[in-house]
Structure formats: C-alpha cells, structure tokens
Amino acid sequence: MVAPIQVLGADGSTGPAFHLRGSDVSYVLRVTDHGHVEHVHFGAVLADLTELADLQPLLRQHPAQNEGVNSPDDPSYWLDRQTLEWSGYGRGDYRLPPIEVRRHDGGLVTDFRFQSFALRDGTVACADGLPTAIGDAENASTLILTLVDADLMLELYYTVFVEANVIAKRVVLTNTAAQAVRIPRLMSQQVDLIDRGYEVITLNGAWIAEAHPHRSPVAPGITLNSSTTGFSSNRHNPGVLLVAPDTGENHGEAYGFNLVYSGNHVTAIELTQRGLLRVQSGINPVGFEWTLHAGERFETPQAVLSFSAQGLNGLSANFHRFVEGHIVRGPWARRARPVLLNNWEATNFTFTHRKLVKMARQAKSLGVELFVLDDGWFAGRSDDHAGLGDYSVDTDKLPRGLSGLSADVRALGLDFGLWVEPESVNPDSELYRAHPDWVLRTAEREPLLGRHQLILDLTRPEVRDYVVGQVGTVLDAADVSYVKWDANRTFADIASPTCPAGEVLHRYQLGLYEVLRRIFEPRPHILLESCASGGNRFDLGMLCFSPQIWASDCTDPIERLTIQGGLSYFYPPSTMGAHVTASPSEQTLRATPLSTRFNVAAFGVLGYELDPEELSASERTEIRSQIAFYKQHRELCQFGALLRADQVQPDRVTLTRLNAAGESALVGAFQTRAIAAQPPEQLEIPRLDPAARYRVTAVPHTLEIRGFGRLINRLSPVPIRDGGVVQSVVNRHYRMPAVVQEYRGSGAALSRLRLIPQFDGTGADANTRILGDFGSTLYLIEKLDSAPAITGGGDER
Ligand code: GLA
Fold first, then answer.
1. What is the pLDDT of residue 56?
2. DSSP state of 454
3. CA-to-CA dists, residue 711 to 122, 183, 419, 776, angstroms
4. Which helix (H) or strand (E) segment is 624 a member of?
C-alpha cells in the first residue's frame, strides 16, 4: 500500500514538501526557501511527488511597480504572488489574512515560518471538545506542521481520509509569550488555487426553504458565504462548492469545502487581479475575539476539503462516504433507521394520552416502528408562549406521565421517541423565574425574544449541569429510544457574566457539544435527530452527535426536492429526516399526490407526520404498502449511493440510488409540472453493468379519483359529479391503480429507457402513464440472474 503521506526533503536539502494522497485526490504543499508554507497542488491523484516536475515556487517574479514588497535578499520573493497555505498581516500579502493578532504592545504584524513537522497514524482529536472527524491508521493519516512567529506557535493539522478523498484541516494557536494576545480572526484553513474561471455554488435559504443551491461566477474581489445568527444557519449552509464552468452532475472538476461546526461560520473566496483564488473557512470573525493568555492554546473547528474530476456526483460521493464513515459515529453509524410517526403536524400542542395511543395503534398497523411525541408534553405548554425550560409533565394531557405513555406505546410493539428543546427557556417558566440570570443577555438591555423564548447560557457549567440532569432524567424515566433535539430561535444579546463577549458564541458551541456528549454518550441506544426549526443547523458538527437531522419544517414534496437536493451535495440521504404529511401542505397549501409525498421522503429517512385516524381506507392501504416497500429496500433507500441527474428540463427531477454491489437501484422520476404535447420521455438509469440484464418495474401506487374531475365519467358506469358526494365517497374507498410498467433489458439499453407515453389529453389505456402536476414514479431496478427474452408493458424501446 502506498503511504497516504509522502515527505520529500525531510533531511532539509529542499523543502520539505508533503504529498497527501487519497484514492483519487492529491494535495501537495511545500515549505519555501523563506519558510512559508506554499500550496502546490490540489486535484487529480499523483502517483508520486516526482510527478510534479517543478516543485519550485510557482509564481516567482519581480514585483511590478507599486504592486508589492519583496524580501531584501530575494527580489523575486513577494508574498502576494505566492499560493499559500497560511499567511499573515502586514508583510506584503494583501489578500485576506487567515489570522489577525493584537499583541499586548499593539503590534498587528504576523509572519509565520515553518519550524518542524510530525506525522501521526489516524486522526488527532481536538483537546477542547470540538468534534472532529474520526478515523484510524487503516483509513486516515495526519501531518502536523509547526510554524512560529515571535511568541506565537501555530500548528497546521492536515488529515487525509484516503477512501473518502477528503483532506481535513485545522489550526492550533499557542501563545508562548508572557502577555496575553487578542485574536479577532483565526481561520481553520486557507488554500490558494490558480483560478480557472471557477463558479461558486452556495446553499442559501430561510425557514421552510433551506439549502436552495445558487451558482454564479466567482467575481473579482471577495465573496463571502457566512452566518451570523449563532447557528450554521438556514440562510447560508457552511458547505461551499467551486466548479469549473462546464461542470455538471457527472462530469467536470469540482471542489468542496465544509466545516465541522454548528455556529457562526465564514467561507471567503478572494479572486485577485493576478488570477489567484484564495479560499478560507472558519469561525466567522464578526462578533468574535478571543483572548489568549500566556501559555494558552486555541483550537479552530475542522475544515474539510474534497475534489473530484467526476462532476458534482463524484464530489458528493466523497462527502457522503466521509460523513457515513468519519462523521456519524456510535452504534447508529450505518445502522438501519426506524420508520417513525411524529404527532406534530397532526396535533400540534393539542393531544391527550388517549389520542396519542390511538395514533400509535394505527401507526403500528401501517407498519411504523417508532412513535415520536413532539412539542407540548410539559406543564404550561398549551402553545409556544410558556413552559420551555421546565421538565415536569402536563398531567392534564398525560395523566400517567411520559412513562405511562411510553409503556402503552411500547406495549403496542413500537419504540418511543421524544421531542426536547433544551437550549431555550420561556420567560413564563419555573426555570426562568428561579434563574433569570441563566440566559444570554447584556447587563444594560432587556433581552430580545424569538418565538417567545430566550437562550440559555451554555457557557456556564451550572446551566449545562441543569440541562444534562433534567434531560437525562426524563429520557431514562420514559425509556426513550429516539430524541428530536430542537432549537428554535436565533441568537441576540450575546453576552454572559462569565466570559468576554467576543468569546460567548464559541464557548456556547463548546458548551452545547459538551451537553450533547454528556447526555447521549452514556445512552448509546438512543437515536438522536437534531433539528433547529427544520434545517437551521444542518452541519457536520451536529452530525458528529446526531446521525440524522430534520431537514426542513417544509414537508411539501416539491419544495423538498430542492431542499434535499441542495443538502445532498454535502450530506448523504441517511442524514435527512423526511416525512410524509397531509395534503395540501401546511407550508405551501400545495396539494400533491400521496405517492409523490412518499417518493420524495423515500430519498431520506422515512417518517410520517399525520393523523392516521384521518386517513381514508384507501390511503391507509397505500401507506401500508409504502412502508412495506421502504422496509424491504431500506438499505438502498437509506444508504444506497445517490446520483442526481443533470436537469435537462426545468420541470423534471431524476434521482437514483444504487446499491454497493450493483445488483439493484431505485430511480425517482419527478414531474414538478405537467406539460402539454409532451415529447417522448427517456428515463436515464446510470451506472448499470452494460452487459448484465435487468428488470425495471414501476413501484405500484394508486391515483386519487378526485384528481380526474369530471373525466372519470368516461370510465365510470354511474355518473360522478366533480365535487359531489358520490365522488367524495368513491374517493375515500377506491383509488385507481397506476399503470403497470415493466421493462427488461441490458444495462446499456436501460441507460436511456424510453418510457410508455404520458396522458396527453386524448385518452388513456393500459399503456398510458398518468402523472399530472407533481406526479412521480419510483422505478425499482433489479439485476436478473439469467438473460430472459426482451418483454414488457413498455419493452426495450
Ligand atoms: C420546530 C420544529 C418542528 C416542531 C416544532 C415544535 O418548529 O422544527 O418540527 O418540532 O418546533 O414546536
């Protein structure tokens, strides 16, 4: 096996230079003659460092007049033209510095030079409790470079995750001086690339509209992707992509950057007039300033970088492997997740023990495995104005407490899960009345409210102890096996009596991670799903604790295609909570078919969030078969490799899951808008073995009679008036089966499978697909052992 880290010139003759090698990625850096760490290569894998014929500085050139400053003993060495892995302020690199330092004498200049390096097998965890990716000597290797500038020591950590093709970078700064220094900016990583006309893709959004991808050329100057809300945020997810202009889902070069952190972040992309592209990522300096006392060290969160020459799908495959292999940990890593029913959209705050048990009983009969009680179970919680922070149960709603409810749910053969929101408190709560000083607030102002609540000061040990104690007691008493951990307001009044204001948000993150560790490490049987009003904290930091995250409060499947699709650039479907809810959507009022609601949720961790008692008999039958199908193909749905198809038509989305052995696949074909006079449609099924034979079947589903309006009279023996009583009765008891589709052929032929036609206004028969607006079909592809003759209701066309 080739070493994952190759070192050249360790004897001091040149460099040294370092080659970090993943299976398909190489990352090369070297130390210049002047001791700066230069970035040399990030891209296609190199067999050997000697492949880089010229390891000499790339951009040596005498400075143009008035453009830069140079080393007195080397006129061709000026920092502004170097591609640097690290830099400073005030020594001629005029781009964004990765560090800013205010020394006790007011000095601002920094110039870090290489001192030594070390190699370690596997990973090196943060000493201060920040989560980092995990790995062992088999799949990861770490390089540590030590740089020094006067009384400051800086360690650059690089870990290569070989199979995942991910390079993780972080920084540890130590103050070796006798006086304190202040640090208003310390990035986790910097890399200087040579621009090739790259475009940037960011995931932007809002509540119920998370992770919408936007792509634009990188403009000269500085582009920022950042969050200042105290969360990694639904506004701008920390994941950022840089792509060549021609890059699509399946071809072209793509770089990805992300951060193992859940608070304020920034990724800065600076394009210079000389065609250099600097990318930095780390804690957002807005509102940040850390005082590093003599002898202290500060560790940044871990940044992760990856590259693929196989387009965005290639890059996502790297990140998905990385998340499933090195971020999600504990007994739930790569473990099948249960199908759940959550009561939130069905009941909101209004429920009783009886009602919940009835829902659970029906859920069980549908095939659900886990019943989750959401918000509203504690005293005073009749709406979102009161009760948060207290952990006593509302005995009007639940006279036998959580343990009584849990026992009844478990007696039905279901697991029991619970919603909590431990980071906040309502002013109208026992906790706040007892400890009004336990919230983030300045001394001089009334703290602002968000969703009628304040944020608990997790920088303080006594507050953390309270949360750990209270939540732990509830979870144990009710025999809880799943927790939904929510956080529903953004930060303001960022101050605490116990630490300087510029440290509060980062210390809060450390406090939050400590609380999560203390609650859930001793309870490894609990599956944790984190949530922040949906996807307001969908990041690698939370995924180190919660194997899945509630992706969005928007459960409209058409919106979810964009949200889950956007998230999927960085995060695998196994991390995305996805629920089927009632139609029309509570968020958009859009009415969508039950089949499409399932087909979208099946591209994530499936749950239901509706009242089973309100379902018609025919819907119940449909849901029963949905859940049975999902369970049968759970491995494919939760852990199959995801491939997004390039969108050739704006109203079509096609997603594929492939199993590792290449034996089966699932393709979801979604029609976000029906179009008249439709051209022939081809289903692209990627990456099948061209020589092997497969069977493609449309997963059976049914269509609502109501959806046909008065056209149903062409089929019905009795007249049915649109909107009339007969239609309503028929609709509750009968649904029309969708056309049977089965195709067989070689993997090569199926890479472009011509589908039987859609309804186009002139009638339908047994060979007509009926979709309409928001219609969709799931196709199951199974490898055939032998090679049967070509047949089908829709043959190999
Ligand atoms: C947030 C969550 C929802 C639900 C409510 C309960 O909005 O995202 O799923 O749990 O809180 O108050």
1. 53
2. E
3. 65, 70, 45, 21
4. helix 617-632
- CA–centroid distance, 354 to ligand 1, in Å, is 22
Q: How far is the CA of 419 from the centre of ligand 1 (A)?
A: 9
- pLDDT above 60: residue 92: yes
What average pLDDT score do residues 704-733 get?
A: 88
Q: Is 453 touching ligand 1 by the criterion CB < 6 Å? A: no
Nearest to 512 by CA among 493, 486, 535: 486
Cross-strand partners of 113: 148
pLDDT(59) > 70: no
Q: What is the pLDDT of residue 621?
A: 96
Q: Which two tokens stand for residue 703?
A: 């269509």
Please give the distance, rounded to the nearest whole angstrom, from the Cα atom of residue 485 to the centre of ligand 1: 10
* pLDDT confidence of residue 287: 98
Residues in the chain: 797
Give me the pLDDT at residue 787, please: 47
The residue whose CB lies within 8 Å of the most ligand 1 atoms, and thus the one to mutate among 385, 424, 553, 555, is 553
Per residue in 546-557, pLDDT tens? Answer: 999 999 999 999
d(CA 548, CA 572): 10
Ligand 1 touching residue 486 (CB < 6 A)? yes
Q: Which residues contact 709 (CB under 8 A, 6 or more apart)?
A: 722
Residue with the two structure tokens 């995942």 = 164
Question: Between vectors from CA 543 to CA 539 and to CA 548, what angle results, nearest 5°?
Answer: 105
Compute the distance between CA of residue 4 and CA of residue 165 in angstroms, rounded to an integer.
11
- Span 520-578, pLDDT tens digits: 999 999 999 999 999 999 999 999 999 999 999 999 999 999 999 999 999 999 999 99
**Residue 571: exposure state from Cβ atoms within 10 A (0-12, 13-18, ≥19):** buried
Q: Where are the beta strands (DSSP E) in 261-386?
A: 265-271, 276-283, 290-292, 297-299, 302-308, 340-342, 370-373
| Exposure class string for 383-409: b at 16+ Cβ within 10 A, else e | ebbbbbbbbebbeebbeebbbebbebb
What are the phi and psi torsion angles at 475 (to 5°)?
-65, -40
d(CA 421, CA 390): 10
- Tens of pLDDT along 107-150? 999 999 999 999 999 999 999 999 999 999 999 999 999 999 99
Distance CA 429, CA 450 (A): 15
**620-631 pLDDT, tens digit each:** 999 999 999 999
For 298, residues 6+ apart whose C-beta sits below 8 A from its C-beta are 172, 173, 183, 186, 290, 292
Q: How far is the CA of 373 from the centre of ligand 1 (A)?
A: 11
Q: Is 531 in the pocket of ligand 1 (CB under 6 A)?
A: yes
User: How far is CA 276 from each of CA 58, 81, 82, 83, 344, rounded to the nearest angstrom?
Assistant: 12, 8, 9, 8, 50
CA atoms within 13 A on the CB side of 425: 26
Contact between 693 and 683 (Cβ < 8 Å): no
In three-state secondary structure terms, 616 is coil
Q: List alpha helices for 290-417, DSSP H.
A: 311-322, 344-347, 353-366, 401-411
Q: How confident is the model at residue 54 (pLDDT cuts 50, 70, 90)?
A: low
488 CB within 6 A, ligand 1: yes
Q: Which residues are catalytic?
A: 486, 553
> In 3-state terms, what secondary structure has residue 187?
strand
Q: Whose CA is nearest to atom 9 of ligand 1?
A: 553
How many Cβ atoms from other residues are within 10 Å of residue 613's Cβ? 12
Task: Choose which residue among 374, 482, 542, 560 to substitute to test ligand 1 binding: the one with the highest number of ligand atoms within 8 A of its C-beta.
Answer: 374
Omega within 30 of 0 (cis) for the link into 500: no
Find out whether 123 and 164 touch, Cβ atoms under 8 Å. no
Please write the tens of the pLDDT for every residue from 390-438: 999 999 999 999 999 999 999 999 999 999 999 999 999 999 999 999 9
Percent of the chain at pLDDT > 90 equals 87
